[in-house]
Amino acid sequence: MEGTKEANQPAIEGNPSEAPRPVWRKLSVNDIETLTHIASQLHPSLPEAPEIFTERITLFPGGCLGLFEPTTTPSLCGYLISHPIKHHHPPSLNTLLLLHDLPSSSDADQYYIHDIAILPKFQGRGFAREGVTRVLETVAKRYRSTCLVAVYGTQGFWGRFGFGVGEGGEGLREKVRGYGDEAVFLERENARFQGAGA
Predict the structure, then answer these.
(1) How far apart are alpha carbons 195 and 198 in whole angstroms?
(2) Which candidate, 32, 2, 19, places its Cα nearest to that of 128?
């Protein structure tokens, strides 16, 4: 559920360059409590259990990133969750992959950006773009295409990365409706596709 509001908000006031710039790095299960708090704050109408995030981070650590302030005790201020799926088979909202249709390494043929969220204080500074670009240029390019379910009217933001409205059967449309009436299934071809074995 790609609902970052960063695409629709102006840059924050003041001089953010005076403080160390937050950086993206891999999440760990130790970040779950803070991550869940951010998710409930930014996605109150699309709740997901902590177990959902724990599973994704455990199974696909390379696609699960946190935005951290580089302080003495790094503070999580945003996250991006992504993982491979079978083509046009994203998981339903708040569903464990192991109870859904977790693809094996041999039959996963599409990459899926499950969720991205950044705290309001850090929106409007390009962090969403940085996180998405990092995923698309690393783990995602092992697959021919990447997809997501856009919410909160962020289709324009995703269009900057080449995402367009994707087609699919009734099963896919039913899953997308679970993310809200305005949810849209988007996908794009990965230009520098390297193959899952790369």
Answers:
(1) 6
(2) 2
Length in residues, the chain: 198
Pairing of strands 64-69, 23-26: antiparallel
Which structure tokens are listed for 34?
Answer: 């803070």
> And the tokens for 151?
């919410």
In three-state form (DSSP H/G/I as H, E/B as E, the rest C), the secondary structure along the chain is CECCHHHHCCCCCCCHHHCCCCEEEECCHHHHHHHHHHHHHHCCCCCCCHHHHHHHHHHCHHHEEEEEECCCCCEEEEEEEEEEECCCCCCCCCCCHHHCCCCCCCCCCEEEEEEEEECHHHCCCCHHHHHHHHHHCCHHHHCCEEEEEECCCCHHHHHCCCCEECCCCHHHHHHHHCCCCCCEEEEEECCCCCCCCC
Residue 24 has, within 13 A of its CA and on its CB side, a CA count of 21
pLDDT by residue (tens digit) across 121-156? 999 999 999 999 999 999 999 999 999 999 999 999
Report how far residue 69's alpha carbon sits from residue 162's, in angstroms, rounded to the nearest whole number. Answer: 29
Distance CA 52, CA 55 (A): 5
Whether the full predicted model's pTM is greater than 0.90, yes or no, is no
Token pair of 48 as six digits: 């997901």
> What's the one-letter identity of residue 132?
V
- Provide the pLDDT confidence category of residue 20 given band limits of 50, 70 and 90: confident
